[in-house]
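Why should sequence recovery work at all? Because a backbone constrains its sequence more than one might expect. Tight turns favour small or flexible residues, buried strands favour hydrophobic ones, and helices have their own preferences. The token representation captures these environments compactly. In the example below, the structure is given first.
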């Protein structure tokens, strides 16, 4: 009964409503478009349920991203705080990922509430769910690298933390792949990424902190226009990076402030030249 064994009739990435892309899937509406491709809502005939289908672009980077996402989703299906994977198939050199259909993401929830702060109880529910999902992800050796309100969704079928689901694992990196700096959305980007330092799973912790602040206040914590602006805002709150961090970082030359001589409480554990080194930001 695998979706993969059935023929796919869709011929282009831009889908017309009610156009069948699969003998058991009928496209009803486009849910979103992005750099990766497109997400559509489909009716699955036979099972009489609606599902979401993520359609990746055919270029190699997007294929790799989709393959990584499938691996992670399969590996984390025991965790109820992670998007439920149903199946995947390929057509026209495009990978399709079929998952449960969710209600809305947390950015949409904030927008619907006119960016009024969420209750502390609701923020705690989000924290419990996201931290559980990310801990499971880290346990299999991956970092999410794109935690933000748009990538946390509500099932809309229950109360509490069980209603909150982590999605979009297309940007994941293995823990050892910690010197690629095209990761994380700007407002949720950790300072070690901006500085060009080897990073750890703690970059996800940074993003979660930014996320929870935004949910409880209705406003983003570091809404920079670019990395220089974001880093200036971060420095205004937590202080300047240390001289060690500024010396090791490959991107620090873009910042025009002097390094701190004080020992800051934020310490990044890296693995530079094979040694367990502490780099104080």
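From this structural description, the recovered sequence reads:
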């Amino acid at each position: 009964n695998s979706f993969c064994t059935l023929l796919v009739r869709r011929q282009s990435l831009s889908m017309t409503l009610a156009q069948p892309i699969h003998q058991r899937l009928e496209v009803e509406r486009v849910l979103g478009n992005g750099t990766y491709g497109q997400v559509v809502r489909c009716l699955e005939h036979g099972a009489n349920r609606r599902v979401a289908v993520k359609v990746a672009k055919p270029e190699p980077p997007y294929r790799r991203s989709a393959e990584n996402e499938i691996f992670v989703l399969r590996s984390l299906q025991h965790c109820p705080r992670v998007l439920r994977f149903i199946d995947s198939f390929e057509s026209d050199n495009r990978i399709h990922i079929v998952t449960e259909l969710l209600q809305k993401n947390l950015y949409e929830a904030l927008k619907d509430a006119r960016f009024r702060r969420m209750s502390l109880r609701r923020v705690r529910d989000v924290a419990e769910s996201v931290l559980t999902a990310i801990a499971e992800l880290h346990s299999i050796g991956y970092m999410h690298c794109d935690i933000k309100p748009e990538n946390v969704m509500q099932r809309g079928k229950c109360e509490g933390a069980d209603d909150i689901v982590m999605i979009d694992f297309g940007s994941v990196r293995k823990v050892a792949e910690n010197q690629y700096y095209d990761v994380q959305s700007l407002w949720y980007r950790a300072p070690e990424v901006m500085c060009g330092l080897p990073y750890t799973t703690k970059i996800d912790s940074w993003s979660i902190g930014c996320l929870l602040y935004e949910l409880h206040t209705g406003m983003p914590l570091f809404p920079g226009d670019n990395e220089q602006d974001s880093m200036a805002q971060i420095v205004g709150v937590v202080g300047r990076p240390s001289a060690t961090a500024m010396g090791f970082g490959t991107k620090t030359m873009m910042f025009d402030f002097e390094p701190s001589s004080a020992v800051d409480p934020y310490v990044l554990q890296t693995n530079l030249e094979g040694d367990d080194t502490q780099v104080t930001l």
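A few observations help interpret the result. Residues 1-20, 263-281 have pLDDT under 50 and may be disordered.
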